[in-house]
Amino acid sequence: MTVPSENPIDLDRSNPEAEIAARATAYRNWGRWGDADVLGTLNFIDANKRVSAASLVSEGRVVSLAQAFDTDGPQRGWRRRTNPVHTMTDTGTDAERGNQGFPHGIGGADDVIAMPLQCSTQWDGLGHIFDHGNAWNGRRAGDVVTSDGDLVTGIEHAAAVVVSRGILLDIGRHLRPDTCELEDGYAITAADLDSCAAAEGLTVERGDIVLVRTGQYARTRRDGWGEYAGGPAPGLSITTAGWLHRTEIAAIATDTWGFEVRPNEFDAPAFQPLHQVVIPNLGLTIGEMWNLEELGEVCAMASRWDFLLSAAPLPITGAVGSPINPVAIL
After folding, report:
1. Which residues contact 22 (CB under 8 A, 6 or more apart)?
2. Record's InterPro entries (predicted)?
3. Rounded to two decimals, what is the model's pTM?
């Protein structure tokens, strides 16, 4: 089998179908963990990996990696993705006026939130993307996700799994030391990932959760959301599929809306081709819209780039994604 090139110059930009198919075939993990598997590359995290990751905690410092979940978010309504709507159903005013119906002066507050599961910091589950009608592990997409939800690989299966060694590849700081921000449309290559890891003194290990900071989120906090949700962005090149496969990482997350470079790397119509390769074929869990700013500063000041990472999804039965509040513990 010919291994696809990892140099973006070699891409046939007129033929996304062929480039996607070549990588899907070369790096497919179907059957690797058995026909009944529901976790994909999260299987690379085992008990020994977690014990080793826990040993990285030396200060007890916790950094949240979540964006805010509120109406001032990045979503603009694409495919009915809206920002969270938070509504109070009981308030202090109700308590003061004694109209809640409780005895002996007790009062309380309650609230409800309505939101798409992938409107802010989140994981893409294995039922989120299909390749020519196939879901993860070669199942038919229509047998996996129906109007009742993801009947096979729902995000709930990962609820007690996503705790491992996290590593930050601060590509923005590495490639653009003056601004610490990659420009929109920059395609991060496998060579970029390797050179950043080497500069940070890191070895990417099996079962790691890799966090890639591009700096785009920092730009939105300074200049406004703009086209953040779906617009141009730095991100991973489709040519990194081989790197994502051979490193045997458990999951990967970025500070961008779509994980991969946008616009995508083809002159012909294409939409999120790297998603199409790695979610249904590799079984890779992808995180998007993570806030990596404080973590980047902490890691740079301490000259350490690995930590214990806990990023459990909500166990929403049958969901194909989940909001999260991932935390790095140093």
Report:
1. 2, 4
2. KFase/CYL, KFase_sf
3. 0.96
* CA nearest neighbour of 41 among 212, 205, 248: 248
Residues 37 and 104 grouped into a single domain? no
pLDDT at 1 over 80: no
pLDDT in tens, 139-194: 999 999 999 999 999 999 999 999 999 999 999 999 999 999 999 999 999 999 99
The span from the CA of 246 to the CA of 150, in Å, is: 28
**Rounded to an integer, what distance in angstroms lies between the CA atom of residue 40 and that of residue 305?**
25
Structure tokens of 114? 């309505």
Place of tokens 């005013």: 93
How many C-beta neighbours within 10 Å does residue 152 have? 19
Do 50 and 164 fall within a single domain?
A: yes
Among 68, 97, 114, give the residue marking a domain's end.
Answer: 114
Co-location of 234 and 298 in the same domain: yes
